[in-house]
Amino acid sequence: MPDELLSRQMPHDLEAEQAVLGAMLIDADCVKDVMDKLRPEDFYIQQNRDIFETIYTMFSYSRPIDALTVVDEMRKNGTFDEETTRGYLAQIMEFTPTSGNAMEYVKIVRDRSLLRALARASGEIGAMVQEGLGEAEQILEAAEQKVYAVRRGRSAQELIPVAQLIGPFLNRLNDLASGKTGLPGLPSGFSAVDQKIHGLNKSDLVLLAARPGVGKSSFALNIALNVAKQSGKTVAIFSLEMSREQLLIRLMASEGLVELGRLMTGRLSPSDWGKLTQAARTLRQTDIRIDDNPMLTAAEMNAKCRRLDNLGLIIIDYLQLMTSAGGKGYAGENRQQAVSDISRMMKVMAKELDVPVLCLSQLSRANEKREDKRPMLSDLRDSGAIEQDADIVMFLYREDYYKEETENKNIAECIVAKNRHGETGKVPLRWQPEYTTFSTVEFRYDEE
Asked: Which segments of 258-343 are extended strands (E)?
């Protein structure tokens, strides 16, 4: 029995690990392909991990890679052993006569790495259950997070060396500089807004706030439709206020430019039917998912989104309703603390899923007491940590909401009040209430 226990090892394939390293040492052209698929922690044997990590660092700094340069770099970083390392490098190069099958070996190494990560996660989940660390719902949430981290191919708690971040950063920067990608984030469909916020960026919490009836739900749906059409990614909409049927009607009105009143009553002209047919065809080609359960918690939203493979954007309408949706989890807490906790969960979800989260929020009545009704950060209802957690805060303002007799009829302002990625300011938008849609306008207001 002791011998059997000592012989137990986590899943790995020594020959595949050596073949991957050997391929990179004899053919530098395959290094970039391997780097896209593997990380140092994917190697089980420590010596192999040290060699790969050295090559990884050299690749990040665009240094030439061969047996001699790798040996020199390993001497510098203290992982080279004169007695064993040189002979081991020669052995794996001899073991690998060609780099032609490198990506097949990469698949094997990657597969074994995922199996080890799954084994560790299952062990940790078993330990939590046996030790009774929390209630069943809490353990389930923690277990889903661990399995999702394995699915993403990374540890939820690992420390990432800066050297591993440089390569992807430079590649992304090169794409932006060469014009391959126009924006760092997903385009919202409103070019003037994107110029300020640089699109909807991964891991960002974007807060969109306005008074009731100004059009924040419509603006969010416009963004959802634009992102789904232009990026081809999945957009998840959690509506705690409107039903999925109401959301669909607005999407059809906006995309088909059919008056909302006609859609609600069914009094459609022949041209309306033609527009609706085209709108339906367009919507069928998008991947927009809607959940209108008003009692969803932040944890449940997170769990649902983890199961979406091509997720690009999450929209939540709206933040304050999630305080009641939190149910027993917020019993006895004051409203401001509950909303602050929810906003923090939204930011954690954005980082964990690595997608932008667009969260709608109500405004307090404080702005109505001022002569200038334009919203300010201090107007965020139950603000607490909302302003702190959000990467971008945008307000919608319409002068005709407060003054019926105004020359700025159906002109809205998207006010970027906080922006961690760039400048703040105002962007004019045209509001078409009959279609519940916003569009850009040709002119800009003078920025104050």
From this structure: 288-291, 311-317
Interior angle at CA 425, CA 422 and CA 431, nearest 5:
120
User: Which is catalytic among the residues 241, 300, 387, 399?
Assistant: 241
- Indicate the domain borders of the chain: 1-181, 184-440
What sign for the dihedral angle of Cα 52, 54, 60, 65?
A: negative
Give the chain's length. 448
Asked if domains 1-181 and 184-440 share a fold, the reply is no
Single-letter code of the amino acid located at 209: A
Could you tell me whether strands 411-419 and 425-432 are parallel, antiparallel, or unpaired per DSSP bridges?
Answer: antiparallel
Spelled out in words, what is the top-level CATH class assigned to the domain 184-440?
A: alpha beta
Strand partners, 363: 380
- Inter-residue contact 258 to 276 (CB < 8 Å): yes
- Cα separation, 17 vs 42, in Å, equals 9
Respond yes or no: is residue 407 known to be catalytic.
no
Answer yes or no: are the C-beta atoms of 364 and 381 closer than 8 Å.
yes
What is the model's pTM? 0.66
Separation of alpha carbons 187 and 193, rounded Å: 9
Taking the C-alpha atoms of residue 89 and residue 91, their distance in angstroms, rounded to an integer, is: 5
Closest CA to 194 of 180, 184, 179, 202: 184
CB 194 within 8 A of CB 421: no
Is residue 363 left, alpha or beta, with left meaning phi > 0 and alpha meaning psi from -120 to 50? beta
Which residues are paired to 397 by β-bridges? 413
State the fold for domain 1-181. Answer: DNAb Helicase; Chain A (1.10.860)
Angle of CA points 294, 357, 165, to nearest 5°: 150
pLDDT tens per residue across all 448 residues of the chain: 444 444 467 888 888 888 999 888 888 888 878 877 788 888 988 889 889 888 888 877 778 888 888 888 888 888 887 778 788 888 888 887 777 788 888 899 988 888 888 888 888 888 888 887 777 877 787 787 777 777 665 554 556 677 777 777 777 777 767 665 567 788 888 888 888 888 888 888 999 888 888 888 888 999 999 999 888 899 999 988 888 888 888 888 888 888 888 888 888 888 888 888 888 898 899 888 988 888 777 777 877 887 888 899 999 987 777 754 444 444 445 666 777 777 787 888 888 888 999 999 888 777 777 777 788 887 776 555 677 788 888 988 888 888 877 787 888 888 898 888 878 888 888 888 888 888 887 544 444 4
Neighbouring-strand partners of residue 412: 398, 429
